[in-house]
Amino acid sequence: MHASTPADWHEANRAHWDERVPIHATSDFYDLESFRAGKDALRDFELAEVGDVTGKSLLHLQCHIGVDTLSWARHGAAQVVGLDFSEPAVETARALARELGFSQDRAAFVAADVHDAAQAVPDSSYDIVYTGIGALNWLPDTRRWAETAASLVAPGGFLYLAEFHPMTDCLDDATGTKVEHDYFSRDAWVDETPGTYADFDAPTVHNRSVEWQHPIGDVVSALAAAGLRIEFLHEHDASLFARFPTLERQSDGFYRFPADRPRIPLMYSIKASRAATGS
After folding, report:
1. What is the CA radius of gyration of the chain?
2. How far apart are CA 90 and CA 265, in angstroms?
3. Which pLDDT belongs to residue 277?
4. Which of 116, 114, 140, 124 has the alpha carbon at shortest distance from 60?
5. DSSP state, 37?
6. Nearest C-alpha neighbor of 227 from the set 269, 274, 267, 188
7. Is 199 left (phi over 0), alpha (psi -120 to 50) or beta?
8. How far apart are CA 197 and CA 20, in angstroms?
9. Which residues form the Methyltransferase domain (predicted)?
10. Is the per-residue pLDDT at 2 higher than 70?
11. Contact (Cβ atoms closer than 8 angstroms) between residue 68 and residue 133
């Protein structure tokens, strides 16, 4: 249901995520056994759009259990820092980093609210600030987020965001063919569904969560207002999971609508850079 922003939104969301960390860490969805053995957690389009990270510093905001963060380290980033507001998530990420043999200088994880990142992370700026894949919907204010994220981009560096397309939140859950919700709504969305995307049948107690839908125009405008130059905005016809029952798993692991029905964007990605002069 839609509602005005509840006063307990931050505490509710943190309890929600804290409880799901051990479920995710043992789930087939994250498949940490394969990850430990070398499986890459990053998507092909992210690798292509971010490019070579060799020798660069990378900050991952809202990193959850750190598999994407550590994948960037595996791809050659000189230093990766992951930040998440969930202490259990950060502890899980730290344990993974140790198991993979990364020193704290190569892969560090910090428990802090994303809006406090500038005060919480080890350095004042990074070559790449990376975020997304189900992150922005947990934040009420894109401008505040963009100001924080942009402040951590080093001169000559860039922010890269890969995220689920807000259009998908407007469509009916059963088929993904009918518009049922307001694309421009600024209201909080309160959900109390048990389980988790990594295990729909998992028994859970802290089921109350609060989310927001952010039109792409708001995200792009917030980044531009924060002083970054938009290099590209790409929309993708694929999702990481079966957002609608009609989506079909493809050979590349993504989910898409059947070939006989019109496509809509299911994900999007943005690269936004800071001038080398720091201006």
Report:
1. 18
2. 32
3. 78
4. 114
5. T
6. 274
7. beta
8. 10
9. 59-157
10. no
11. yes
User: Which tokens hold the place of 183?
Assistant: 């694309």
For 133-179, write each residue's pLDDT tens digit. 999 999 999 999 999 999 999 999 999 999 999 999 999 988 888 99
The Cα 124–Cα 154 span in angstroms is: 8
Beta bridge mates, 108:
81
Nearest-CA neighbor of 23 among 250, 190, 207?
207
Beta carbons of 243 and 176 less than 8 angstroms apart: yes
Query: Residues 165, 156: contact at Cβ < 8 Å?
Result: no
- Helix, strand, coil distribution of the chain in percent, nearest 5: 30, 25, 45
Contact 71, 46 (CB under 8 A): no
User: What fold characterizes domain 2-273?
Assistant: Rossmann fold (3.40.50)
For residue 162, give the 3-state DSSP assignment. strand
Amino acid present at 166: P
Amino acid letter, 226: A
**Alpha carbon of residue 188 to chain centroid:** 19
Token pair recorded at residue 56: 């660069």
At residue 137, φ and ψ (nearest 5 deg) are: -65, -15
This prediction's pTM: 0.95
Q: C-alpha angle with apex 236: 235 to 237, nearest 5 degrees? A: 130
Cβ atoms of residues 144 and 118 within 8 Å: no
Contact assessment for residue 19 and residue 25, using Cβ atoms and an 8 Å cutoff: no
